[in-house]
From TrEMBL:
Pfam families with a match to the protein in the record: CheD (PF03975)
PANTHER family associated with the record: CHEMORECEPTOR GLUTAMINE DEAMIDASE CHED-RELATED
Listed name of the protein: Probable chemoreceptor glutamine deamidase CheD
Gene designation: cheD
TM helices/strands, residue ranges: none
GO biological process: chemotaxis
Coiled-coil intervals, chain numbering: none
Origin: domain of life: Archaea
Function: Probably deamidates glutamine residues to glutamate on methyl-accepting chemotaxis receptors (MCPs), playing an important role in chemotaxis.
Keyword line: Chemotaxis, Hydrolase
GO MF annotations, alphabetized: protein-glutamine glutaminase activity
């Protein structure tokens, strides 16, 4: 994980940083953070406009309790907590942070309970954000289609590109 706090280049197009599955990153220089392949996974974007600082995490599974060990960014509970801490380390204040989330599809729902991994991921992300007092101000979750997202670090705007409904802005 790197925190980008250098001066923005004189070019009009900001730096683009790709976030992979079970990864996160934080920017202070207005870089654009992107991730793709959000099926049942959730992309969680946090932004504190007072600094400004933004971050994005791509989580795969609901809870770290379901695994013996591993990367905290892989799980909704620990991934959100890690991202909050990283934004605070970069100068953010959780009382000023807002969240936008996308993903959580049940593309291949084989569960008998009807509550697939995508729905459980979305519920855990929302629960963890609520525990930390961070409001969700935009969401594009559920359904049965994939998504890619782009977080504009300078504004906190989240652009969601869906397989079935084009692009929307949160």
């Amino acid at each position: 994980m790197k925190v980008y706090d250098g001066q923005a280049e004189s070019e009009s197009k900001p730096e683009q940083i790709k976030i992979g599955i079970a990864e996160y990153d934080v920017t202070r220089n207005g870089a654009v953070l992107t991730t793709s392949g959000l099926g049942s996974c959730i992309g969680v974007a946090l932004h504190d406009e007072t600094v400004p600082v933004s971050g994005l995490v791509h989580v795969m599974l609901p809870s770290a309790d379901e695994a013996e060990n591993g990367n905290p960014a892989k799980f909704a509970d620990t991934g959100v907590e890690t991202l909050i801490e990283e934004l605070e380390d970069a100068g953010g204040d959780r009382s000023n942070m807002v969240a936008k989330i996308a993903g959580g599809s049940d593309m291949l729902d084989f569960s008998e309970s009807g509550s697939g991994i995508g729905q459980r991921n979305a519920e855990q992300v929302q629960e963890t954000l609520e525990e930390h007092g961070i409001p969700v101000v935009g969401a594009d979750i559920g359904g049965d289609h994939g998504r890619s997202i782009k977080l504009k670090g300078s504004t906190g705007q989240l652009v969601v590109k869906s397989a079935n409904k084009g692009s929307t802005e949160l």
